[in-house]
Amino acid sequence: MADSDYMEGRIRDLARSAYMNDYITHTDFLSASEQAEFHKALRKLGVSRPVDRVEGVQYIFYGGFDEAERQTAVFLPSWLDAQTYKAQEGETPQIVTCLKVSPAAAKFADALTHRDYLGALMNLGITRGQIGDILIDREDSSAFVFVFKDMADFICNELSRVRHTTVIPREVPPSSCTIRPEFEIRSGSVASPRLDAVLSFVCRLSRGRAQELIMREAVTIDGQTALSGAHELKDGSRVSVRGFGKFVFMGSRGTTKKGRNYIEVKIYK
User: Among 2.60.120, 3.30.1370, 2.40.50, 3.10.450, what is the CATH number of 3-90?
Assistant: First the structure.
């Protein structure tokens, strides 16, 4: 069964369950490509953006903080709107919570990375879909790990080492996470704000190579698969390129004497 077929069935099941029982349902944490599959499945169901309802149920994407890359699609009951849900989750989470994982002795800790933490969690038997973003504090190698609420106690009880470092996990409100993904601001000129031109600039590729990535469906814009290099990016568009990372198009900042667009992008490290 194709991924989009499975996703279509999953969306129907979760939306109908939320509607019939009037409680929250949600998917696993979805990567950017999985979010693109979600939107592709919605189109097959006759739902297109900016509509945020399916089967009569409002849904939102949520990962614990606004800039989260991995997010769960949450289907809301009739008595809860998106804004209220996000405000409540930040302080008293019911679905997505945050774990602060700290070395027991920071002075002697390894320089732990995202891969180290992810590996330690998956060695507990946890699947990737149960783990959201992992943000590393480079000062002491501690991490904020976003997970589903029903996994928090298990992880706090079982996670004791990351690589050779003894760690202490504890649950904290998602709003207490002070770390955000690191990024580089880059500016320069392009012929136009077309996707292929901006990709060529950001990824330092030829225009032809950028087009190849788009044709291979390796590029998503705001979680949806890019279909054409001619697509003009809007301010705030989040672009993910398989094998190259992700960036946010911050918009045009004027034109050069030769009529080229002077743009600014935020590239995540």
Answer: 3.30.1370
Taking each helix axis from N to C end, the angle separating 195-203 and 207-215, rounded to the nearest 10 degrees, works out to 110
Q: Give dist(CA 193, CA 260) in Å, integer.
A: 10
Tell me if 196 sits within 8 A of 208, measured CB to CB: no
Could you say which of 3.90.190.20, 3.40.50.300, 3.30.70.330, 1.10.260.40 is the CATH number of the domain covering 96-176?
3.30.70.330
Render each residue's pLDDT in the chain as its tens digit; 269 residues.
Answer: 346 688 999 999 999 999 999 999 999 999 877 887 888 888 888 887 666 899 899 999 999 998 888 999 999 999 999 999 999 998 899 999 999 999 998 787 888 999 999 999 999 999 999 999 999 998 888 999 999 999 999 999 999 999 999 999 999 999 999 888 788 899 999 999 999 999 999 999 999 999 999 999 899 888 778 889 999 998 988 898 988 888 999 999 888 888 899 999 999 87
CATH number of 183-268: 3.10.290.10
